[in-house]
């Protein structure tokens, strides 16, 4: 047992060293005055700091969140930190297509342009459940919902070209076990739950969709990218049970800043921003 623990710690240390060797920093000074940006799931974690960076650069930032109270609190923090008061809150719940359509209608009615859409919102569910639309919650929140939102806003993105779509994927897509004939299939096996295979299935769909979106928009002035944001300590497991949350907290505490996990703060590498307006990424790959 002692040897096993030592081996695990050494592997974590090597992984951490590897991450540090490949870490890159966002040093762009691009100004976004006059630009409009939507960041979904912007009240916490990666989405929050992405939105804050956009606000710092002068953009009009729309925080697209499920919980109004948390979104308003995030807005106040961003305005205070950046001095940019042009930060708005809109409500959207990706587990409901009606909510997504309502949100899109409001954006189209209020906004004259949309320069950057960051599909950041997502969650891991370890129990099989269905949404009000009768689809897998995991698949709808992480893939179907963002797919619908992007499709509904495409005309506005084209109108605002050059514009960008940035889709948050995940390294878990590498060990997905997707069934093309049944995207709503949810595996309850121990291995699938341990390695987040269901979540990986949804993120694989995000990657494949983004590839095709980039191809179709090649000559439209709209760039589509998908990315793995790195190993970040956020509340991605907020919708799981208490036991899983506790185990995640313990693991994060043991490894945070020492071996593997990185806390989601400004010093973490901000791949979202780099993909959003880097001049050398005109295409996905």
- Count the beta strands: 8
- State the secondary-structure class: alpha/beta
The major beta sheet can be summarized as: 6 strands, parallel
The total count of helices amounts to 9
Overview of this protein structure:
Mean pLDDT is 82; it is low at 255-263 and 280-285. The chain has 9 helices and 8 strands. The strands form 2 sheets. A 6-stranded parallel sheet has the order 3-2-1-4-5-6, with helices on both faces. The chain has a two-stranded parallel ribbon with strand order 7-8. By secondary structure, the protein is of the alpha/beta class. It is 46% helix and 13% strand. The termini are far apart.
Task: Describe how the helices and strands are arranged.
Elements: H1 2-22, E1 36-40, H2 45-56, E2 60-65, H3 68-82, E3 87-91, H4 97-110, E4 116-119, H5 137-159, E5 163-168, H6 190-194, H7 197-216, E6 222-227, E7 232-233, H8 242-255, E8 262-263, H9 271-277
Parallel strand pairs: 1-2, 1-4, 2-3, 4-5, 5-6, 7-8
Helix pairs in contact: 2-3, 4-5, 5-7
